[in-house]
Design brief:
With about 120 residues, the protein is mainly alpha-helical. It is about 55% helix and about 5% strand.
């Protein structure tokens, strides 16, 4: 029989923003899908360090610097193009649909559910 005692090996509780009544299970699933990608996690981390909209090209540069051991000068142009295409056509649309970011043509900023994603990222 399980006791209601708090054990030290219990997992960290989820942040209130995840367990609130405002989040549907589908909302939480969409946020977890955003956190499943290393590049999307890098984007969340970089946005959390800024305030206001960020130009997409700056996000590409930040992601390439954080995601590679090489310096930005040694990254080949085709690698930056690859990151840009993935960001514009895969990562940002998924994150925008989940409400984690707001993406306009040339900028990206925190979305309505950004704080939830950021809180989950800190837990995991």
């Amino acid at each position: 029989m399980l006791s209601s005692e708090n054990h030290s090996n219990d997992p960290t509780p989820l942040p209130d923003s995840v367990t609130s009544d405002r989040q549907t299970p589908e909302d939480v699933d969409a946020i977890f899908e955003c956190l499943a990608s290393h590049r999307r996690r890098l984007l969340i981390e970089s946005l959390s360090e800024t305030s206001g909209p960020v130009v997409v090209e700056e996000s590409v540069q930040t992601m390439s610097e954080q995601g590679n051991r090489r310096t930005p000068r040694t990254l080949r142009g085709d690698r930056l193009v690859e990151i840009t295409i993935a960001l514009l056509h895969t990562y940002l649309p998924k994150m925008d649909e989940a409400g984690v970011v707001d993406h306009e043509a040339k900028t990206v900023q925190e979305g309505d559910r950004f704080c939830t994603a950021e809180s989950l990222l800190e837990v995991i």
